[in-house]
Amino acid sequence: VQLVESGGGLVQPGGSLRLSCVVHGLTNSNQPIIWARQAPGKAIEWVSGIYGDGSSYYNHNMRFRFAISRDNVDNTVYLEMNDLKPEDTALYFCAVPRYTDFDLQIYDGRGQGTQVTVSS
Fold first, then answer.
1. What is the DSSP string of the chain?
2. Do residues 37 and 44 lie in contact, with contact meaning Cβ atoms separated by under 8 Å?
3. Residues 92, 115, 107, CA angle at the centre, nearest 5°?
4. Burial of 42 by CB count in 10 Å (0-12 exposed, 13-18 middle, 19+ buried)?
5. Distance in angstroms (rounded) separating the CA atoms of residues 73 and 24
6. How far apart are the first and last CA of the chain?
7. Residue 32 in 3-state DSSP?
8. pLDDT score of 59
9. What is the DSSP letter of 77?
10. Cβ atoms 3, 23 nearer than 8 A
11. d(Cα 46, Cα 91) in Å, to the nearest integer?
12. Model confidence over 101-117: pLDDT tens digits?
């Protein structure tokens, strides 16, 4: 499985970004795809996950600001991020989780990530 992220950048506090993750090589159309992030010096933090049928799940810390979606025709998973805060600054990556406990951070594939920096 190959995953390629895009859409990161520098944004001011309160701003928005939309991240994209193009997925190649999935054999199970309902395979969940997750977004996770890692800030410098900190552990990986699960952000959100979505199944092929559209069922979605969120880290409770972000569920009211972030929205995940999936286009199964284009094999792309999106993460819409609103009201961004400096503490959202991190490398965001998408991944294929091996288990349904998305916080386990065990992946069968992950992308290189896209940097999100929230600063004035």
1. -EEEEE--EEE-TT--EEEEEEEE--S-TT--EEEEEE-TTS--EEEEEE-TT--EEE-TTTTTTEEEEEETTTTEEEEEE-S--GGG-EEEEEEEESSS-GGG--EEEE---EEEEE--
2. yes
3. 30
4. exposed
5. 12
6. 37
7. coil
8. 94
9. E
10. yes
11. 12
12. 888 889 999 999 999 99
The pair of structure tokens assigned to 100 is 């349904």
| Tens digit of each residue's pLDDT (9 = 90 or more) over 73-88 | 999 999 999 999 999 9
How many whole angstroms separate alpha carbon 34 and alpha carbon 15? 22
**What pLDDT, in 10s, does the model give residues 31-67?**
999 999 999 999 999 999 999 999 999 999 888 999 9
**Model confidence at 29: pLDDT above 90:** no
Give the side-chain half-sphere CA count within 13 A for 63. 7
β-pairing verdict for 90-97 and 107-110 = antiparallel
The two tokens of residue 26 are 């999935």
> For residue 76, what are its two tokens?
């792309």
Phi, psi of 86 (to 5 degrees): -55, -35
